[in-house]
Specification:
about 325 residues, TIM Barrel, eight-stranded parallel β-barrel, two-stranded antiparallel ribbon, globular, F420_G6P_DH-rel, oxidoreductase, Similar to F420-dependent glucose-6-phosphate dehydrogenase, Mext_1273 family, F420-G6PD/mer
């Protein structure tokens, strides 16, 4: 059965507001949560950037939902610290927490003052980080010298079962590379043909039979014009190609580049419709591609009505209620 979850966008809402929204989402029938992990928002119009790991403890306590977070161990975070944080949440809330890992964006990682490596080096660093995290979760003492350095690290608080590590991949190349080592895949809702290529690449690389998670960036509002306007105001810069999203360093740079994105340019990158039935149709196509977990991110600011309407019109269809 497909699980439909709510995406909590730390870039757009204060942590206290997100707690209210995730509780409202659970009451409406959403069955899981996902959150972003940023130091900066993409643009100043989004306006927030709370610390995801603090918030996750509160959200897991405030609800009964399972949660995931997408992070980038290796630069801003040392993987031993991520391993400790994830182990603590998994011990507190057994079988309710998983972690997705990616190679990161300069927007968040450059704050350490270290050079932001090219993509192949970031991938190699990520793979080392995952190895370190898994070794620490076995309880062994870990020393590692490579693109990251670990000296005699050992975790003393461990969960009964280690969290699942899911690879974040936007391209078929990254998805295929991750298929052999990740416990699952998470990607975003590309146009259908592009999304199919990511799925096929993950399976080809060794991911056959592993769970797949999809972050669905959509814009629903009471009318089409409001949905389109809200998507463009809040998320236009996020429709830029992946290499651009990875390399820009500051919110004002995203704003400058995003100012050239026209409302019609975001078609295909964000699912825009005021019709809940249209969203059901799109989501059923995702299920047909093999996604087990769909996390809905309404990119405009009208979250409460979105949660209410989708709880009444969309979730029952997808959950088979």
């Amino acid at each position: 059965m497909t699980t439909i979850g709510y995406h909590a966008s730390h870039e757009q809402f204060a942590p206290s507001h997100l707690i209210r929204l995730i509780r409202m989402a659970e009451a409406a029938g959403f069955r899981a949560g996902l959150c972003s992990d940023h130091f900066h928002p993409w643009t100043s119009q989004q306006g927030q950037s709370g610390f995801a790991w603090s918030w996750l403890g509160a959200a897991l306590q405030a609800t009964t939902l399972p949660f995931g977070v997408v992070c980038a161990p290796g630069q801003r975070y040392h993987p031993a610290i991520i391993a400790q944080a994830a182990a603590t949440l998994a011990e507190l809330f057994p079988d309710r927490f998983w972690v997705a890992v990616g190679s990161g964006q300069a927007l968040n990682e450059h704050i350490t003052g270290q050079p932001f490596p090219i993509k192949p080096v970031r991938n190699a660093r990520l793979r080392e980080s995952v190895g370190v995290m898994r070794a620490l979760w076995t309880g062994e003492s870990v020393t590692h010298h490579g693109l990251i350095t670990v000296e005699e690290a050992k975790l003393y608080t461990l969960p009964d079962r280690a969290p699942r590590i899911v690879a974040a991949a936007l391209s078929p190349e990254t998805a295929e590379w991750a298929g052999g080592w990740a416990d699952g895949l998470i990607t975003v809702a590309h146009p259908r043909d592009e999304l199919r290529k990511v799925v096929e690449a993950f399976r080809r690389g060794g991911g056959e039979g592993k769970p797949m998670y999809l972050q669905v960036q959509l814009s629903w509002a009471a009318d089409e014009e409001a949905a389109r306007r809200g998507a463009h105001e809040q998320w236009a810069a996020n429709t830029l190609p992946s290499p651009v999203l990875s390399e820009l360093r500051r919110p004002d740079q995203f704003e400058a580049v995003g100012s050239y994105v026209r409302p019609e340019d975001i078609e295909g990158h964000i699912r825009i419709s005021a019709d809940p039935d249209q969203h059901v149709e799109w989501l059923l196509e995702d299920v047909a591609l093999g996604f087990d977990h769909l996390y809905l991110h309404n990119v405009n600011r009208d979250q409460e009505r979105f949660i209410e309407v989708f709880g009444e019109r969309v979730l029952p269809v997808l959950h088979g209620d």
